[in-house]
Amino acid sequence: MNANGTKVRVTIDGRTVEVAPGTLVTDAARAAEVHVPIFCSHAKLPPLGACRICVVEVGMPKLGPDRKPVLAADGAPEIAWMPKVQTGCTTPVLDGMHVRTATPVAVKARQGVMEFLLVNHPLDCPVCDEGGECQLQDLAFAFGADFTRMDEAKRTFESEDLGPVVKKEANRCIICMRCVRYCDEIMGDDALTAHQRGVWTEISSFDRQPLDCEQCGNCVEVCPVGALTALPYRFKARPWDLRQHVTICPYCSNGCSVRLGVRGNEVLRARGTEHRGVNQEYLCVRGRFGYEFVNSAERLTAPLLRMGGAQSPASFDEAVTYAAARLREIVAVHGAGSVAFLGGEKLNVEEQYLFQKLARAVIGTPHVDARTRSTARVPGDAILRATGGGRPAMSLDDLVDAQEVLVLGDDLQGEAPFAQAQLIRGQHQRGLHLTVANQRRVKLARTKFGGDWLAYRPGSEPALVAALARAALELGDAAGAAPAAPWRAAIEGWTVEKGAAATGIPADAIRAAAKRLHAASRKAILFGRAVAEHPQAASLLEAIEALGWASGAITESRAALMSFGPQSDSQGALDMGLTPDCLPGYVPAADAAARGRYEQAWGRTLDLGAGLSAPEILAAAAAGGIKALWIVADDWLASAPDRAMAAKALASAELVVVNELFLTPTARAAHVVFPASAFAEKEGVVVNCERRLQRTVRALAWRKGVKPDWEILQAVAQALGAAWSYRGAEDVFREIAKLVPGYQGRSWATLLPLGPQWSFAANAVLPERRAAAAVAELARAGEGLALLSGATLFLQGGLSHRGTLLPKLAKAPRAFLHPAEAARIGVGDGDRVSLAAPGGAIELDAALDPSVPEGSVFVPQAQAGVELNRLGAAGAPPRVTARRVGARETVGA
Amino acid sequence: MIAGEVLEAPATLAWSAARRAEVDEALARYPIRRSAVLPVLWIAQREWGWIPPAALRLVAVTLDLPEPEVFGIATFYTMFNLKPVGRHHLQVCMTLSCSLMGSDRLFRHLERTLGIGHGETTADGRFTLRRVECLAACGGGPCMQVNFDYHENLDEAKVDALLAGLA
To answer: Which chain A residues touch B72 with a CB distance below 8 Å?
Structure first.
């Protein structure tokens, strides 16, 4: 029995299952493998009971006068059935409950519901995109009658385009409210609503305007019928003509599972995956509509070689031979230390492992760094330490149940859209409280989410974190917060008041935020590029670790911090040692004993000296110290902090090798360009922000002339004399699983569909902690405006530009100014402005946006045409002078 | 002609001081702002005669509600005019008692007399004609509500006399 609330027994169509108390009948039926149809019910939304299709008969054991079950002649308890059918999706199970789904009463009731749902449905399946995967179609087939008693005219609505991604055919709608509720409770957009009432109820937007929302298309995904369909996929294919492959989205670090629909060798759509992946049905606009680059006709299809002047197509063998020969010459003349390896955050871990192995074991250079955007040297294990040093990590699902979440510095809408959706869902459904530390009033900081917004001065993240950590320490000893703890060094000399003065946030607000975090038993601290690419990232990350310990987010047994890297496999790049000071698995490169495992496995000494980090490689290459650069999956001219310096480095290097999908400006500057496979064309393992290992699958046949990066790297290694003989990425993974701490004992076979989150055994060897400097205070004011930047929703990285839809949604690149600031400097909405720094200037159209604080200008990252790194080193924090250089361009003039 | 063409919908609207005071009074009546949405929509309709999209936006901002939600609420209730109406809003009850007493005939007579159909407005902006559900005046059917006034036990002659008296 259910005395202590553990499990309850429920019998459904004669099958008895034990489920948690409070489980809904429909979910218990799924556990009992009994099919109960649903339309309106959704796992992420509270029960509603709008559509009534899940009606079942429900009964409880009949009790006698002695309050004991009355037994029938066969000894089984007699069941008192409720006189009317009940909706299974709103009825929680009780211990001893019986459910019947297939009795004449239940079936007749369901047929009645079906008949009503079809009263006004147009039955236009042959011209409906949902046809073939439509729940209404399936259930009409299963339960519906083969004739209609309705001879009245059906009510009809006009079809509507709700913006560029959603097509609405209201005639097909069954008013299940899934789209409206999903948009409200999970996306936090409230873009859809029910208009009118009764039979004229229709789902639409405000005044039938294009949807003002994230354009995620999740309303299309959750629509159980063809009322909402995706415009980009409209009339492109029939679901039974598509091969469907579930792989991992190539955009952000959330690692959502994405179901690619492929016909021929072309990706025609991307959808969520019901009941699979970290995200299940959820996808953001990039995940759902950003697949176009895979099919692009601009993809590179043959290696390019520059011998003397222009680049010309070459065979793969020629390119490999040339690259190997030039590398050998440069190493012979200038030494292995004149070669540097950059990029690789978009590769899968097998390729990342080979990339650094090629650098360290074959070439013998220590200069490896994937973090090309960094503005300062950051230890390779800094993010790992800040997120708890490899202690068991939190999951994206834990976010929904958290009581208090601190989002530090980043706009999750662009940085980690699924994490943002989890937070909104937690806020809406489970009382999660948000503390959003951001210079701008980003989406999560809006009043509708009921959180607290800490608007700090540009660049003062370290002061804020130090003050929060100090305030948390004032609240008493959190577990592990020993006075001698090494992380205390980072916040040495800071007080709450000093932090308040530096950030411009009242000390009371800092103390209150620290108190909320400290008091919550389920909490999380989230951060991303605003931290990792901060000029003081190294000490800032240590301060975050201090905040983690002081607030109890890090304990001896687990850690509740999550870092969102800039790319889909940024975590893998760190794990695989694409940093100058860490070998794979965070084995310190300078520690002779620790690195022995790799020396033995790779058959050479790894006493390579101190490696340069990405910004140091940039400076060394521009100064002529680095002679050869190998850049993978990274448009360095766009990602390097100083574009002019990167251009100089590329021009002066004797050899530049680039693995790319497209002829990017960086690839154009290369001597050898290897065309590389896109995410949908190769297999491998990627690691998301939860440190979860997930295998990607190959959805497309390999393109002619294009190879996966591991094959390119292996071919060059072999040409350089290395005895590499991997037959596939899985072979590489076997080597990783043998050697790399945290990954040991893993197998590809266990990484589908959802792999585990890796964590270190308690005795992991992290490098000796360097004596960290306390975070320093940045210069506060200066000339001009503070330059704010950050991720945006519609574009990320170089790939999102290659389609048509995402750039259209992102509109033209713009500089966002507070209306008051714009008025002060004499700039109107749409005017052309120049942003100038000592290193250079860029021109953009201005847009007025009150979410940007006065005294600053916000320019989104990753937009084609916005090359912030043309400003050069714009200072820390960066400042620019804004000036109006032209009027708004009038259309048609 | 359709009613939507009678008036240009303004791009933005603001409360007059008097209306703002009424809005504040309505807000003070409820513990949460959202609850005041119907009274505030009424205030908007009194101010502008109908509720253009800009007024819906204004209500949404005033109550800190999503715009689509306010739109959904306003469309749910038929007594909110989301299109401009004439000076005299003729609302003919079509529900059972009135129907038995000849409201269909009466409505057809109005259509012929005014040259407009359900939901339409005369070109001079004088009349808007609409079928409505029960006006709760079943003892006096057929009945018609003109703006806020009830007219009961109607027939064609009484309607003609009534229309003649409305400027």
So the answer is: 193-195
